[in-house]
Structure formats: C-alpha cells, structure tokens
Write a structure and sequence with these properties.
The complex is a heterodimer of chains A (about 120) and B (about 400).
Chain A lengths: L1 H28 L29 H31 L7 H23 L6
Chain B lengths: L1 H5 L4 H38 L15 H10 L11 H17 L18 H10 L1 H11 L3 H32 L4 H11 L2 H4 L1 H14 L11 H4 L9 H26 L13 H28 L5 H36 L1 H40 L6
The chains are: A mainly alpha (about 120), B mainly alpha (about 400).
C-alpha cells in the first residue's frame, strides 16, 4: 500500500517538474524583446474598455451549487456501488434492502434536482 | 525488475529507481503519443476537408509535431502588463501535472501497470478534476475579458459534465464490484466487455468525456469565433504549448480510459487474460483501441458544429443525469443476479450478463425515446400555438 502511494508520489514529483523544466528551457532559448504595445492586453486590436471583472450570469453560480450537491452524492454512491453486489447477493437469496436505502437517498437528491428544474434554475437565459 | 535492481542496492533504493524509471517511461510514452495525435488530427481533419494536411517535414509530414515543438520552444513569451504575474505563470504549471498523473493507474497488460490502486477510478476522476482549477487560474490571472469568459465557460461546462461522466461509471463499478482498473479489466474477461453490458452508459460516458476535454462539438470554452481562444488567449510561446499539451494528453487519456473501462482494455477477444500472447501484445492492443476513440473524436470535430451554450447545459442536467440515474437503478437490480449466476455456474455468467443487460438497456432506450418524443411533441405544439418562441 505504502509502495503504491510512493509511486504516485514519485510520479507526481516528475509530473510537477516536467512543466517547470520545459518552461525553464524555453526561458533560456527564447528571445526577449518586450514592448509596451506587445505587452498590452489582446482584445482583437481594440483598446480595452472598462475593467475585466465584469458581471457574470448568476447561472454559473447556480450550476456550481447543484454540482457540489451531486458530486458529494457521487462520492457517497461510489463506495455503495463497490459493495452493493456483494451486499445483495450475500447469504442464501437476494436481499434488496441496501438498494431500497440507496433509492431513498437518491430520491431526496433527485427531488432537489426536480425542484431546481421546476424553479427554472437549470434554464440558461 | 525491482528484484533485478535489488541485487546491486538496498531494497528501498531499488524500488525508488524502478519507480523513477517507470514514471519517466510513462511520461515519454504519453508525450510521444500526444505528439502523434496532433499529427493524426491534422492529417485526418485535412482529409475530411478535402485537403492533404501536413506533408512537408519528413515522410507524410510525420516530423511536423517535432518541428512545431522546436518552434514553440524558441518562441518569444509575452506576459501582458495587465496580468497578475504570479497567477498568470501558475496557470500552465497547474494544468499539466494532472494530465500526466492520471496515466499512473492505467493498466497496459496484466503485469504492466504503474500502480493498481484499489481506488483507481476514483483517483483518476479526482486528479482529472483539478484541471478545472488550472483553467480558472489561467483565465483569471490573464486579466483579459475573453480569457475570463472562456475560463468561466470552461468551469461551468467541465463541472456539469463531470456529474454524468462519473454517474455513467457507477454502473460499471457496480457490476465489477471494484474501483481497481485491473479488477475492472479482469471482470470484463469474465462477463464480456462493458460496452455490451452498458451500451447506454457507454454513449453517455463518451459524450461527457468529450465535453470534459473541451473537444468539438463542446469547445465553447475556446470558441475561436467568439472569444479568440478562451482561457489561453494571453498565453504565448511554451506557456501556450503547455495548455495545448495538457489538452491533447487529456484526449489521449480519456480515450485510453474509455478503451479500458468499456472495450476490455488490453484484452484480445477470446484470449485468456493470463495468456503469454495477451501479456506481450496487451499494450499494443490497448493503444489500438485508444486510437479508435481518438479517431472518433477527430471525426466528430470534422463533422459537427459547436453546440449552443443553453443546449449544452440543459443536455447535461436534464438528459444525461436522469438517464444515468435510471441506468444505475437497473444495474442495481440486475448486478446481484449476475453475481449469483457467476458463483453458481461460471460458464453461464457471460451469456446471462450480456442478455439481461442488453434487455434492460433496450427497455431503457424505449423509455428514453418515448419521453423525448412526448417532450418534443409538446414543445412543437406550444411553438405552433405561439405561446413560446422557437429555440
């Protein structure tokens, strides 16, 4: 187990080092002739108007909220998915009680999705 | 290999050396394939658009990616005055590592895997999810409206499609009873490839994966006709190259993942997993299957126009998520039955699994079809009445 995560650690270090080494090489090789026009913000050749932090649609944030709920749902669903078959098929016959429990859990979240849907939170206006 | 090194040095040093060696081999493998994909894409897209594509450097233009790499290394790199220097330079450094790190758990044959983590699939999605962060950093740090809009779009899209992508995998996990990549491949040897057992989940996974890696028809985050290049508008030189690299590595990995999870990974049909032929040819078979999916993504890019943003979001939440939940419920009903059959009579396991799953998927398909048909009819009627505008 430790050796496995040791490999992940080594690989992570190499993965982190790769872009750093690449950019360092490019820094040595590339020409450096900056100018005020060159370093200006590129917006199709026009002068930039106003500041960048413009207002955003509230939809972006609503989707982010729904995502958080569903991502946590999946974090709970995956361990269940791993053990579900073994749980149900254990013993002599099929015992579907774990499934009923999960259906209740998902149904609560699904109710949330349906509510958001009916409220129009999923519309991109 | 570790045993071989252990003759010359203490055990921990041997293990470490082997880790570093394998990691570097894996990195080089991913890089070479990524360069090759860029060439394949230019050639195939060229043919689809009735052009020849890259043909100057080397035979069939094969050295074109290498030439591009050299060029991009020696290009001037401009940091805009308006950008926040620290965040701006952090962007490419955050985007690339997750695209490389996911290869650690990919099984190339029964004996060649970086690590066979018992939470392999979860590890992949956890690591791949951090790519979103890099894109947001890049878009925010550039201090450019186009970059910010592109980054926000990318985050909204990747976040939305991560849910159906993960949910479509849950059915597979349930049948396999494990999250380990080797375990999933071994299960497919026993029951048949998951593309036969989970055809609808497979299609959902493909669509979601395509959206995850921002490929056409889901390339809104970098829609060049609207927002220049999205989050990497302000990046030039190798910093742009890093985004390009991360994108194509993700394409490569997602194709390899689809091949592993749904097309049996390194297996050759009708050859047992432990077989010598399979051990030896495994990596090549996996690469072949991977390129099947890469060709598919290029084909889609050559064929389909970009989808509209409201359609994109509605499709993820209103179509794919309900379909996935329905699929999970059906699999939860059937998977234990398959498991019992496999325990009692192993020979029957594969036919029973495939037939029962195909029937379930056919029923599901009919339900989906009828629901969509009724929705379309209702919407058309409303448009005809004039109560809602056409969209």
């Amino acid at each position: 187990m430790l050796a496995q995560w040791g490999f992940i650690g080594v690989f992570l270090l190499i993965a982190l080092a790769f872009p750093v080494i690449g950019l360092a090489t490019a820094w040595l090789l590339r020409p450096k002739k900056p100018g005020p026009i060159k370093k200006s913000t590129y917006e199709c050749g026009l002068e930039t108007v106003g500041e960048t932090w413009i207002q955003f649609k509230v939809q972006y944030y609503i989707y982010a909220l729904i995502f958080v709920i569903f991502d946590i749902e999946i974090a709970f669903l995956l361990p269940w998915a791993v053990s579900h078959t073994a749980l149900v098929a254990s013993g002599t016959g099929l015992n579907y009680l774990p499934l009923v429990e999960v259906v209740i859990f998902v149904a609560i979240l699904l109710a949330g999705l349906v509510w958001a849907w009916r409220k129009g939170a999923l519309e991109w206006v | 290999m570790v045993d071989y090194f252990a003759q010359f040095m203490p055990g921990w040093a041997a293990a470490l050396l082997w880790f570093v060696l394998y990691a570097v081999i894996l990195l080089v493998f991913a890089l070479v394939n990524m360069l090759f994909i860029t060439w394949v894409e230019r050639k195939v897209i060229g043919r689809m658009q009735d052009r020849i594509g890259a043909n100057r450097a080397g035979p069939f233009g094969l050295f074109q990616p290498v030439a591009d790499m050299v060029k991009i290394l020696t290009k001037e790199d401009i940091t805009p005055t308006a950008a926040n220097r620290v965040i701006y330079n952090l962007g490419p450094l955050v985007v690339v590592p997750p695209a490389i790190l996911v290869f650690a758990v990919l099984p190339f044959s029964a004996s060649i895997t970086g690590v066979d983590l018992n939470i392999g699939l979860l590890f992949i999605f956890a690591v791949a999810g951090t790519a979103t962060l890099g894109i947001l950093i890049a878009g925010w740090g550039s201090n450019n409206k186009y970059s910010l809009v592109g980054a926000m779009r990318a985050v909204a899209q990747m976040v939305s499609y991560e849910v159906p992508q993960l949910l479509s995998i849950v059915g597979v996990v349930m049948i396999a009873g494990t999250l380990s990549m080797q375990g999933i491949v071994a299960k497919q040897a026993q029951l048949g490839w998951f593309v036969l057992l989970q055809p609808i989940a497979f299609i959902v996974f493909l669509i979601a994966a395509m959206a995850e890696v921002n490929r056409t028809p889901f390339d809104l985050p970098e829609a060049e006709s609207e927002i220049i290049a999205g989050h990497h508008t302000e990046y030039s030189g190798l910093k742009f190259g890093m985004f390009y690299l991360a994108e194509y590595m993700s394409v490569l990995f997602v194709s390899a993942l689809a091949a592993t999870v749904f097309l049996g990974g390194y297996q050759i049909p009708f050859v047992p997993v432990g077989n010598v032929i399979n051990n030896f040819l495994g990596p090549f078979v996996l690469i072949g299957k991977t390129y099947l999916f890469i060709f598919l993504t290029i084909w889609l890019r050559g064929t389909l126009p970009r989808v509209r943003v409201d359609h994109l979001m509605a499709f993820a939440w209103k179509a794919l998520v309900p379909i996935c939940l329905m699929n999970i419920f059906l699999v939860a009903l059937i998977a234990p039955f398959i498991s019992v059959t496999a325990a009692n009579s192993p020979a029957l396991a594969a036919p029973v699994a495939i037939v029962s799953m195909l029937v379930a998927n056919a029923i599901m398909f009919v339900i989906i079809y009828l629901v969509i048909q009724s929705i379309v009819r209702r919407d058309r009627a409303r448009v005809a009445e004039g109560t809602v505008p056409a969209r």
